[in-house]
Design goal:
heterodimer; A: alpha/beta; four-stranded antiparallel β-sheet; B: 218 residues; mainly alpha
Chain lengths: 260, 218
């Protein structure tokens, strides 16, 4: 995927609506821009439309109205297969192929793209190193890995063909707090080096503040606002405030401390 | 004369009928695999075809086997040789477990895995051959196993239309009220069924990716 548009916008939502096959409205006018090289967090509670918004980018879901542009072209104009192979996709529980070993899982897109064998195995080695796994793990199957290892493999698989865009759907959601913390830190380091355009779905405010260059808060199928972490914390927008208050500073909210 | 003595004296004939029986079962199961698996795949892709295909296979299953042999008798080429007719009838009966298990096997693949594949840019064909079919293989083979075992039993009835097989002894024994003769047909048939069940069961376990069951522990 080449940088077609020069205005620094990698992904653009324009007046996007989406109704599920049953007619239930999931997204109700989403307008959003994702700048090249930034990590945009889609934050919101369950059912707010975060995951659907993410899936519109690689066209796993198509808008019922409006358009989604990736690198200047609408998802309708894109050849679907080309579009998707240029976008890394990481989901919760990693979605690894259970019948492929780690190496084949990581090599998925390069194999589909028919890279030469030596180039693939060299790339797999690089990626294992990049996500902090030892080479010996390459022969193992997903069920033989810990949750954290599986997620690392999932990230390596998404990065395999060096896509400029990375979509991450609660990638660390199912991990224990310590492993999650570790992976979040590594993700920051990785993103600092690779400068991918990342769209990251989470409902965890702490994760959003830590990883995001901007946070788009979603509610009822709309993007309420998109702010930097600093702006987000300071915002007086009632919906933002409610989200920040719900998380607090890590200590229990006032209401739970008991009245004096 | 007990059954063992009967086998000793007629071992050539027993072997011949067993081979006839086996041939009908193997040929019909292979035909059913060639038709049933693609049909099973088709209805995962075209949900509109789901009801007519599964419904049709279900209806065939409800036709009593003797009646089905009768219905197929007037069909040209098929009806002219009883062996062909028997194989066709057995094939029709084997379709339902094959279509159903192929469909269930593919539909049973973890949706997250399928979506990951789709999201990474696999074409439908790549998804089918590299992900869905390998992961559904155990369930599909279970369908072949059920079809084969049913077919071993049903093939005994083929003797009623002169197609041979171990049913010969059973029908002869019934006509002559000779239990030993009935057993001479029933015992090898039961052993065939058992053999098919055990060997295909072994294959099923070998080929089901244990990894397909999402491990809960991490």
């Amino acid at each position: 995927m080449q940088n077609v548009s020069s205005n620094g916008v990698a992904i653009e939502f324009r007046d996007v609506h989406y109704a599920a096959p049953g007619g239930v409205e999931v997204l109700n006018q989403v307008d959003l821009e994702v700048k090249r090289g930034e990590t945009l967090i889609l934050l919101g509670r369950s059912g707010s439309g975060k995951t659907t918004t993410l899936k519109l980018i690689n066209d796993l879901v198509s808008p019922t109205r409006g358009e989604v542009r990736v690198e200047g072209r609408t998802t309708k104009e894109w050849d679907l297969i080309r579009l998707r192979r240029g976008i890394g996709y990481v989901i919760q529980d990693a979605g690894l192929f259970p019948h492929f070993n780690v190496e084949r899982n990581i090599a998925l897109v390069p194999r589909l793209e028919e890279w030469p064998k030596e180039k693939i195995s060299q790339r797999v080695g690089e990626l294992l190193h990049l996500v902090g796994l030892e080479g010996g793990i390459a022969e193992r199957y997903p069920r033989e890995l810990s949750g954290g290892q599986r997620q690392r493999v999932g990230v390596a698989r998404a990065l395999a063909a060096d896509p400029p865009i990375l979509l991450m759907d609660e990638p660390f959601g199912a991990l224990d707090p310590i492993t999650r913390d570790e992976l979040q830190r590594e993700f920051l380091g990785l993103q600092h080096r690779l400068q991918k355009t990342v769209v990251f779905v989470t409902h965890d405010l702490r994760e959003a503040l830590l990883l995001g260059s901007r946070i788009a808060l979603m509610e009822n199928g709309r993007v309420v606002t998109a702010l930097t972490p600093l702006e987000f914390r300071a915002s007086r927008d009632p919906l933002v405030k409610r989200y920040v208050d719900a998380f607090g500073d890590g200590s229990p909210p006032d209401a739970l401390r008991g009245t004096s | 004369m007990n059954v063992l003595q009967f086998f000793q004296q007629n071992h050539a004939e027993v072997l011949e009928l067993t081979l006839e029986h086996l041939w009908m079962v193997v040929a019909s199961t292979l035909l059913a695999v060639l038709v049933g698996i693609p049909l099973g795949i088709l209805i995962t892709r075209r949900p509109r075809w789901n009801k007519p295909v599964l419904g049709g296979a279900n209806v065939i299953q409800t036709i009593p086997s003797l009646a089905l042999f009768g219905f197929l008798l007037p069909v040209p080429w098929i009806g002219s040789r009883s062996e062909r007719l028997a194989i066709l009838a057995l094939t029709l009966y084997a379709l339902l477990p094959l279509i159903r298990n192929t469909y269930a096997g593919i539909k049973g693949v973890d949706p997250a895995v399928v979506e990951a594949g789709r999201g990474m840019g696999m074409t439908d064909r790549q998804l089918l051959w590299q992900v869905e079919l390998p992961l559904a293989l155990g369930v599909i083979i279970a369908g072949i196993r059920v079809a084969t075992v049913i077919s071993v039993g049903l093939a005994t009835i083929a003797a009623a239309i002169g197609a041979g097989g171990l049913g010969e002894y059973i029908f002869r024994g019934l006509a002559m009220v000779n239990n030993q003769l009935i057993l001479a047909g029933a015992i090898p048939a039961a052993l065939l069924a058992l053999l098919a069940d055990v060997s295909l069961g072994w294959l099923e376990r070998r080929l089901s990716p244990r990894e397909a069951v999402r491990s809960v522990a991490s």
